[in-house]
Structure formats: structure tokens, C-alpha cells
Amino acid sequence: MRSVLLYCERQCDPRKCTALKLIRFGLAREVRSVPARSVLLDPTSENVLSQEDVGSRTPIVALDCSWNRGIEIFTDPRLGRRGVRRRALPYLVAANPTNYGKPTKLSTVEALCAALFILGEKEQARQLIAPFRWGDSFLSLNENLLRRYSEAVSPSEILSIQAEVMGDDHGA
Q1: Contact, 128 vs 23, CB < 8 A?
Q2: pLDDT tens by residue, 19-62
Q3: Is pLDDT of 132 > 80?
Q4: Is residue 109 a contact partner of residue 21, using CB atoms and an 8 Å limit?
Q5: Out of 41, 104, 114, 153, which residue is the most buried by the measure of CB atoms under 10 Å away?
Q6: Per residue, what are the HEC states of 101-158?
Q7: In terms of residue numbers, what domain contains 105?
Q8: How far apart are CA 143 and CA 27, in angstroms?
Q9: Is residue 61 helix, strand or coil?
């Protein structure tokens, strides 16, 4: 089982926060800094997450913050120190109640679930999102994409799948 870590900015309602719920259920651990040699899920990164860049013991770190302040926080140079690899997720659609149906507006738990799924940790991904009423909806909405991304062996393959999907969306 891969380590799932959360760096929480505590900017949202604690009763609705998916990150804090993961911590309460023991599915993730909170950290005060992003550990060396970890992968930080970062929607501002130019590098996409793939099986190619993560070993089996590499922790996955999500930064839980408000989308309104996300760019400011993700561009903080302190997050990129000590060999932290920043990786963006490919195109996926949110199922959380706040951003349902919006592409790329994933909650923290959706991002972590997707990352684990892409990295081949499918059972852990399902366990992570199971406590959320809408968790099955996230997996259903993105079933084909998650399967295809998890079968891709390189970032370029993932980007090709993403381009194909986004091209189909924009042409419809």
C-alpha cells in the first residue's frame, strides 16, 4: 500500500473537507511539509503523472487548499524543495457535490483516488474514495479514462489519450 500524505491549508469548512475526512478515517496522514522524494499532485505542473515516474514506495502528497487560492499556494517555491516531483493529473471530471461535472475541478480525495488508480493501486484508490457518497460516481464518470491512463506506460501516452478526449469534447 502506497503512503498517502496530506498537506492541509485548512481553508475550507472542516465538516465538508475531504482531506480531513481521509485523516479521520486513517486513510491518509497529515504532514507539515512535503517530504523529499515524494510526488506532489500539482494542477499547475507541466509534467503529467504516469507509472514511469513513481516507484512503489514513493509517497503521494496532495495539498488541500481552496481552488480560489490554489495558484498562489502551488507556486510557492517552498513546495518544490528537496527533490519533490510535481505532477499534474490528466483530464478527469469531478463528481464531488461542489464541482460535479466540471473537468479538472477535482476535490482532494478525487485527485488522490485518480493518482492511485493511474499508478496501478486500484484497490487502494477504491478504499480511499469509498467513505464519500459520491465516490462511486467519480469512478463511474471516469471509468474509461482511468483504465486507459493506468494502462499507459509513459507520460506521452497519457497526454495522447488526454488530447484525444479533449478533442472529442470540444468537437461535440
Answers
A1: no
A2: 888 999 999 999 888 888 889 898 888 999 998 866 767 889 99
A3: yes
A4: yes
A5: 114
A6: CCECCCCHHHHHHHHHHHCCCHHHHHHHHCCCCCHHHHHHHCHHHHHHHHHCCCHHHH
A7: 4-171
A8: 22
A9: strand
Q: Are 22 and 64 in contact (CB under 8 A)?
A: no
pTM value?
A: 0.87
CA distance 133 to 118: 22
C-alpha cell at 71: 495558484
- Report the domain count for the chain: 1
Q: What is the DSSP letter of 28?
A: S
The three three-digit cell numbers of residue 101, written as one number: 461535472
CB within 8 A of 16, min separation 6: which ones?
none
Please state, as a whole number, how many other Cβ atoms lie within 10 Å of the Cβ of residue 83. 9
Cβ burial 161-170 (10 Å sphere, 16+ → b, else e): bbeebeeeee
Nearest Cα neighbor of 87 from 122, 44, 29, 120 is 44
Nearest CA to 17 out of 88, 114, 9 is that of 9
The answer to whether the CB of 40 falls within 8 A of the CB of 79 is yes
Residue 59, C-beta contacts closer than 8 angstroms, at least 6 positions apart: 2, 3, 4, 5, 35, 38, 39
